[in-house]
Amino acid sequence: MIRSDSTEKIRVRFAPSPTGFIHVGNARTALFNWLLARQKGGVFVLRVEDTDIERSKPEYEKNLIEDLRWLGLDWDEGPDVGGEFGPYRQSERLELYHQYARQLLENGQAYYCFCPQEELERQREEALAQGRSPAYSGRCRNIPLEKARRRLESGEQAAIRLKVPEEGLVRFNDLVRGEVEFDLKLIGDPIIVRSNGMPAYNFSVVIDDALMHITHVVRGEDHISNTPRQILLYQAFNWPLPVFAHLSMVMGKDNTRLSKRHGATSIDQFRREGVLPQALCNYLAFLGWSPPEGKEVLTLEELVSLFDLSHVNRAAAIFDYDKLYWLNRQHIKLLPPSKKLELALPYLKEAGLVGATLGPAEEEWLSRVVELLLEGVDKFSDLPQKFSLIFDFQPEALAEEAREIISSDSARKVLQALVQKTSDLSDFNYEVFARLTGEIKKETGIKGKELYHPLRVMLTARASGLELDKFIPLVEEGARLNFPRPIKNCLQRIREFACVLGIEPAGKPA
Ligand code: GLU
Fold first, then answer.
1. Which of 157, 355, 464, 472 is the most buried (most CB within 10 A)?
2. Cβ(247)–Cβ(276) under 8 Å?
């Protein structure tokens, strides 16, 4: 029996195990489920699968809720918001699992298995070595329930297994992968409750999906081999099957599973890097799907209206960091200036460039600098490095390229002239600079980049950066403001640079 009633309200779920930070692959699963629910006016359920007592931690649950909310996703039912079919944490549903396991035992659809772990492993290895299926041998299948109960009372430990037919096929139609079939011979009787009393994943997931009326199970392809076992359980209970959709794995460019070796992989890392949640969602949606009209920069609302689960690709999704950062730059451009400043401030504070409080003049100035320097920045965490153009001035530690620029005789002439012409000045601005540059050009005959490049190096101690008509007013103004690390104005820069180069204004001893 498959759910076929198209008028039924769609109910989907994201069911993470809180055993670590949420990985981009899982976040994509969450997003696809959320998009489907929001698009179809359905319900999105968050269920925490914390039955692995050793690896599950409440702080991971807290992080995953924070990360999902940060991404902009919300859920209609979940551990923190409640709902009709709760509790939504598996560790709080153990009694339910036991109740359904008892039902199967009493109907003869499940049995106690007393085989010790080591014995099972030995059998498995032996079967593999002989080229046979490593499925469970069925040794405890025929122990009568009464006898099994007596053994348990006398202190023996047992797991519970589902009895599945020894032969035949389990078939289902996957929304992404099409017709899928598994041979029952390879499956064997799966454990549904472990000997420590905890439900196996395949069991708790089915009980929960069924009791929570989940209509579509959208999850990673790493679960596809679990699906036949889950289908056998639905059949044992005579419950309607949900629609299944298995999303391909997320790989690095080298076609191996995306991992730390490739770069950031958790939502938390991208968040700390200063990737915008809307850019990340935009990119995650492209892992296996592409919008029909080729428009690439999409908001969450646009994704909700365009997304189409039936057009999700079954090929592995390759995670392309360059594409993600490109999208991030596009989304950054769409932000209002006040938002850019708000997002930039934590990074500038952490780098010690900005103190705990900001005066209005400082704030206004910073907002303009952020606007200018954000251009071409992949992510907000790259911003302090860009800010060093204004806050750091180190003529004694020039990079090779800058040193090269000022090494020629003509460059020396230009710099000497600027030092000379500014030696008596106490005020400087871009107009003064333009006038002096004009004079130097006329007097030395040096022009174009031979003229401008050395001047840029002298004012910035760098070979490249902002245009000087932007840079000069910014540092002049910034130098009058209050920052933990004071900004040097142009005259200070020229004098310091002259000192490092041993240039003295003419008339004074060298
Ligand atoms: N707890 C499982 C996981 O995190 C859920 C799989 C599923 O969606 O069924 O992989």
1. 472
2. no
Residue 474 neighbours by CB distance under 10 Å: 18
Cα separation of 420 and 412, whole Å?
A: 12
Are 74 and 208 in a shared domain? yes
Q: How many CA atoms, within 13 angstroms, populate the side-chain half-sphere of residue 297?
A: 11
Q: How many domains does the chain have?
A: 3
Distance 267 CA to ligand 1 centre (A): 17
pLDDT tier at 376 (50, 70, 90 boundaries)?
Answer: confident
Active site residues: 260
Expressed as residue numbers, the domain containing 469 is: 392-510
Residue 404 and residue 498 share a domain: yes
Q: Which atom of ligand 1 is nearest to the CA of 16?
A: 4
pLDDT band of residue 3 (cuts 50, 70, 90) is low
Q: 17 CB less than 6 Å from ligand 1? A: yes
Ligand 1 site, residue 190, Cβ cutoff 6 A: no
Separation of CA 181 and ligand 1 centre (Å): 21
3-state SS record for 240-269: CECEEEEECCEECCCCCECCHHHCCCEHHH
Whether residues 425 and 435 share a domain: the answer is yes
Confidence at 510, pLDDT banded by 50, 70, 90: very low
- For residue 436, give the CATH number of its domain: 1.10.10.350
Which of 23, 45, 49 has the most ligand 1 atoms within 8 A of CB, as the residue to mutate?
49
Q: Whose CA is nearest to atom 6 of ligand 1?
A: 15
State how far the Cα of 467 lies from the Cα of 81, in Å rounded to an integer: 52
The pTM (predicted TM-score) of the whole model is: 0.91
Query: Mutation test of ligand 1: which of 28, 51, 208, 219 has the most ligand atoms closer than 8 Å to its C-beta?
Result: 219
